[in-house]
Design a protein that fits this description.
TIM Barrel; five-stranded parallel sheet; alpha/beta; 197 residues; 11% strand; single chain
Length: 197
């Protein structure tokens, strides 16, 4: 809609004022009652085409972030790096669009190394956290790197091999644990844990 496009442009203009280089794009899930996953994925491509024009006018890059399949219905219909790469292949706008790799969302993917290589210069963001063995909430119980089952160091090595030299962004969505602790404690622990990355 016009209002939504206006809101997107305002957001991108504000990001440009703050000298932000890229913004994360999460596609959204299915609306209640909608079972047309293929149709919704096509709609995502159409909406990204519109968003690209707005991003181009502000100089901001859009970083498409696939999310874990467990949240496909509610948060993102793009659940794999392969799907994100396919979309960028279709759009042919690597000057404006790139990809965010979130280890929490993608660590399970048997083709992750190959798809990171395929993404190459499209890699704009790298998020790390950990999948706890006995997670209590698939979205809001992330562990600190090293506390769970994700080999963040290995995935980072694949990112570097593919040409990524950007920041390692620690993204701890942890309502039941880390969000309950004092901020300085959390920051100290993050600094300890990312030193091995």
């Amino acid at each position: 809609s016009f209002l939504r496009a206006k809101q997107h442009l305002q957001f991108l203009e504000e990001a440009a004022e703050l000298e932000v280089k890229s913004v994360i794009v999460i596609t959204g899930g299915l609306s209640p009652g909608n079972r047309d996953l293929t149709g919704q994925r096509q709609k995502v491509v159409e909406e990204l085409e519109q968003l690209i024009g707005q991003a181009e006018s502000t100089g901001i890059k859009l970083s498409l972030e696939p999310l874990h399949p467990m949240v496909c219905g509610t948060r993102s219909v793009i659940s794999s790096l392969s799907e994100a790469n396919d979309i960028l292949d279709k759009l042919k706008r690597d000057d404006v669009m790139g990809i965010a790799v979130d280890t929490y969302a993608l660590w399970w993917d048997a083709r992750l190394k190959e798809e990171i290589q395929r993404a190459g210069s499209r890699l704009l963001n790298f998020h790390v956290s950990d999948w706890l063995h006995k997670t209590r909430d698939v979205r809001l119980d992330r562990g600190m790197p090293g506390d769970g089952q994700i080999d963040n160091a290995l995935i980072r090595s694949w990112m570097i091999e593919a040409g990524y030299n950007g920041a390692v962004e620690v993204e701890i969505l942890s309502e039941l644990d880390w969000w309950q602790k004092p901020a300085d404690t959390v920051v100290r622990k993050i600094c300890e844990r990312i030193s091995f990355l």
